Structures are given as C-alpha cells and as structure tokens.
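Dear colleague,

Thank you for sharing your sequence with our group. We've completed the structure prediction you requested, and as agreed, I am returning the results in plain text so they can be pasted directly into your records. Please verify that the sequence below matches your submission; if there's any discrepancy, let me know and we will rerun it promptly.
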Amino acid sequence: MLRNFFEKEAPEAESYEITFKSPGGDVAEGFEMYDIIRAQSKPVTAIGYEVQSVATIPFLACNERKMVQGGTFMIHNAWIDPRNVDIPLNPQNLDQIKRIAQNATDKLLAVYLNRSGHNAIDKIRSLMEQEATLGSGELQELGVVTEMISGQSAKPSRALAFDRSILNLKQQAMSDERLSGIERALKAVKAMLNLSAKAMVLQVADGPQLY
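Please find the predicted structure tokens below.
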C-alpha cells in the first residue's frame, strides 16, 4: 500500500506526510517500508502518535520526525515466545530461535544508531532491554525526533516485533476450553483481516490477552 501510494496515487506531490499510530508487527515488513521511504527523492515527514517496536523503523526513515507531546515511542528487543513453537525445544532448536531473535534485534539497533550515532550504543541497548518508552528529552537527545509538537496522543497498545519466519508457530500446552475460545477469536480475526498478518491484541473470555 505504501509503495502504491508513492508510485501511483501521489507521484507528483512535492512532499509527503505519514501519520504513525502503530504497536508494531512484522520486522521484515517494517524494514521494507523503511527502504521505500528512504528511496523517495522528495521530503517525507512523520507525525508520531503511537510509534512502538518495529513501527519505529519506518518512522526513523523520514526526513522530518515530529512526535506528539504525550505520544508513545517504545523500543525493545525482538522476541519469540518459545512456548508457541511447533518444533522440539532441544538445545539446537533453542539456539536457532535465539539467533532469529538476535538477528532481528541487531537490525533494529543498527537503524537506531544511524540516527543517534554509535556513541549511544550502550544507552540504546539498555533501553531496548528494558522495553523502554522514551520521553521527549531522550527522543531529542538521541536524534529520534526533529521536533516535539502539541496534539492529542493515541492510547498505546501492547508492542510487538516478530520475524515472519515463525508465523507458523503454534501454542502447545493449553486446555480444550481455552483453545476453543482462542479458535473462535482467531476465526473472527481471520475473517476480518482476510488472512493478512497484523499486530493484534485479543481479549480472551477467561482473562488473558493474546498478542
């Protein structure tokens, strides 16, 4: 959709503005959006309300990056829940899971350092480990934003960054009753999304949230 907008819907525009209200999603898609924005010869401005996880990557691709006061900008390491994988959790496979997550994390870190400078590597690593929400001072100090602006902030949702190579992972140990409730929820989401992978938050009847 983003590529189509630039190339077909508004190719003659003198500049572009993208509004970000996103909890994150697929790492590969986030970097694809990053490359599309960086390839533009005309200035692109980002307006951030909710910019979490891998959504920070296309945000940082923009020339001007404006964050709404009270908005949410959160960074963290990419993660995979090993309880959801459909392979034996032996040492070899656990090591493979670790490598997948670490590779995604390294890619995120490289983009952050491109804006903040390599002198900030220790601080950014620490913030990612903490799943930190950056305040306005940190956003400006690290070169994440070019300007803080007034406006109504978006309600943040649970951040998510994942690698599409583990989209086929399945939950293993759960009761028939909980599984039935989750299947009903997923069927509703599948119908709504038409099988397109998205970052979603679902409330299961017995209490837990699914990300």
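Summary note from our side: The radius of gyration is 18 Å.

Kind regards,
the structure core
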